Amino acid sequence: MRSFSRSRRTLLAAALCLPLTAAPASGQDYGILSSQIAVSGREAALQLELRGGRSLEIAFRDGEVRIDGASVGRYGVGDKLERSWRELLGRAVSLDDGPLGRALVSWSPPAELPGELATLAGRIDATLESALAARTLEAPATPAAPQEGVVVEGGDALRRLLRDAARLPGMASALEDLDLNRVRLYSDQDVVIDRDEAVDAAVVMVDGDLDVHGTIRGDVLIVDGELRLHDGGRIEGDVRLVDGTLERLGGELLGSVRDIEQEVEQAVRDADVERIVERAVKRSTDRFDAFRPFRYIGRGLAGILQTLAVFAVLAVIGGAVVFFARDKLETVADTARRATGRAAGVGLAGAFLLIPACVLGVIVLAVSIIGIPLLLVWIPLFPLAAVAAAALGYLGVAHAIGEFVASHRFEGWEWMRRSNSHYYMLSGLAVLIAPFLAAYAVGMGGPWFGFLRGLLLFLGILATFAAVVVGLGAVLLSRAGTTRAFAPGRPAELADTEPDLADVEGTDA
Fold first, then answer.
1. To bridge 38 with a disulfide, which of 45, 53, 114, 188 should be the other Cys (CB 3.0-4.6 Å)?
2. 156 and 270 together in one domain
């Protein structure tokens, strides 16, 4: 048999709270009309209905002992007193009036208990003896009529079941809707229902096998056992399995077969799914709370400020490059503008070859004695040189974009028609970061503009990537702006706005 591997969740005390009702046994009568025992991980309770309308309830629950609902003291979970009380209830679960009364009266608390715990144990013992001893003086005037109830055969496995907390959640589901007024409970044995036998009750089998050749008119519950329905056998109710199996050998089953273990696991999974859905619904609902619009506005403003800060840094760097290396920057810009496709191809190849080139340089320098000291320069300077080349290329592309904008008459952009490299640089950088600014501005409108915001961010990233790749290729083609790949001179369309420096110098001469 496979073990019932359910985690110890809420232990339902009602899992095996079977009211044990029977006719008074021969011998001494303790006046117990009925008893109910509830055992779970958090409680161990006994409730007695006594003759004369009296009742008694003693419960160990969550570290507290209660007698008839009133707290009389506290105990430690798992201490000697609690273990002794649980063992008593385990023995008492299958007993009726006479044997049950004797078991309760003869119970003695464990020895060597601490002071307060010993006092509590003595009070419990005295309460049991007082309530049950009084009933021994009252003999029933007439024998009580036999009542139909629970027939228990074998109690050891049942007591083990009560102490097995992992099974209790499944047992609670298995006993649901079971007619507890007509139950035959077998434990720790094999039972055969003969062909000419008809059981007009539900049958519960614990730690045993059940062979059915006859008829069972109620439900059948198998706990850690096997049910064999033979030819000619008939079960009119449902079959419920808790760590059990059903083998059909030609018999007739009118009801359904329920695997309680799978039902409990499915219920747990459904509960987990419900919690996930609830959290998702809560998150979606939170999107429309009163402060959500302000959050989108705040995030948009933060993005705009960050983008403007990056623009300012690039503008300062670009201004420095224009001031100190204008010729080289213009050469890179001309290369990027006049040979865009070629520069893009060279830039992609150069980007892919950066790491191999760095590794190859390290290997070449490492194999030579003279080159080993140069490793200290190569390793940090190569990445810096690659970043500087990409930055120069990006600024060169921005300069080329600014020249292109200035050379065409776009409505509203007349302020950019200036014959100055600083204006070219600023206008080109503004064009490159414009998609980012637009994305953050659109995002301030809330989640309804999420697609448009994402599209603008994608365009901004794509433009930046293209500028870096084309610029890197232009830097490599022009050897960092030191060699013109094309004839020198400014574009014809800019001749009226920016005279060539050589012409100006010649005129001055």
1. 45
2. yes
Full residue range of the structural domain in which residue 233 is found: 1-9+147-286
Q: In which residue are the tokens 């083609």 written?
A: 477
Question: What pLDDT is stored for residue 470 in this prediction?
Answer: 92
Q: What are the CA-CA distances from residue 192 to residues 1, 203, 210 (Å)?
A: 20, 12, 6
pLDDT of 185-221, one tens digit each?
887 788 899 888 888 888 888 888 999 999 998 889 8
- Residue 194 sits in the same domain as residue 298: no
Q: What's the predicted TM-score (pTM) here? A: 0.41
Separation between Cα atoms, residue 60 and residue 367, nearest integer Å = 82
Residues of the chain falling short of pLDDT 70: 1-30, 94, 96-97, 133-181, 267-293, 409-419, 485-509
Please report where in the chains the tokens 């009726």 appear, as a residue.
Answer: 96
Given this model, what pLDDT does residue 161 score?
A: 53
Work out the widest C-alpha separation in the chain, in whole angstroms. 144
In a domain, 16, yes or no: no
365 and 463 both lie in a single domain: yes
Q: Are residue 52 and residue 168 in the same domain, yes or no?
A: no
Residues 374 and 456 in one domain: yes
Distance between CA atoms of residues 29 and 136, nearest Å: 6
Phi and psi of 101, rounded to 5°? -60, -45
DSSP letter at 195?
T
